[in-house]
Design goal:
Elements lengths: L6 H5 L2 E4 L2 E4 L3 E2 L2 E6 L2 E4 H8 L8 E4 L12 E4 L1 H10 L16 H9 L5 H8 L3 H8 L8
Antiparallel strand pairs: 1-2, 3-4, 4-5, 6-7
Helix pairs in contact: 5-6
């Protein structure tokens, strides 16, 4: 008879790294993943579940910024907005050329902001983007980090 998943099955796959308890098994996008009770789990979510925390409908956020960490002391539940705020406050969001959809480089944005005497539409044509993008860059609504 096959035994069920236990907390020991989980903790046996953790290794200390400083204050973190890192998952040593399979990873997906840097996060631990495993199967328990016939369901695929992200291990930081499973860690909270094993501590008796209902994670349904919530994100599980890391205070340590270590996606492999399953230390319940480093985890808390939060909303999508909490997760986005954490990402922004810690500088983990894709910005500039680290954003896969960026059409411009940091150098080009600085060049655009330095141009005088040319319409935004003409600048947009020169750089292969729309006038609306040029306006957002000039008014620092886009590429605010430079």
């Amino acid at each position: 008879m096959k035994r069920g998943f236990t907390k020991k099955d989980f903790t046996d796959k953790l290794a200390p790294n400083g204050d973190c308890l890192e998952w040593t098994g399979a990873l997906v996008h840097g996060y631990g993943t495993t199967k328990a009770w016939g369901k695929q789990w992200l291990t930081h979510r499973l860690a909270m579940h094993l501590e008796g925390v209902d994670v349904t409908g919530y994100h599980v956020l890391h205070s340590c910024d270590n996606p492999k960490c399953c230390n319940p002391d480093h985890l808390r539940t939060g909303t999508n907005q909490d997760n986005a705020d954490d990402m922004t406050s810690r500088g983990r969001q894709a910005r500039g050329t680290t954003n896969g959809s960026a059409k411009l480089t940091e150098k080009q944005v600085l060049e655009i902001r330095a141009i005088r005497g040319m319409s935004q539409r003409a600048i947009g044509k020169l750089y292969g983007v729309g006038q609306d993008t040029i306006s957002l860059i000039i008014n620092r609504k886009k590429w605010k980090h430079i």
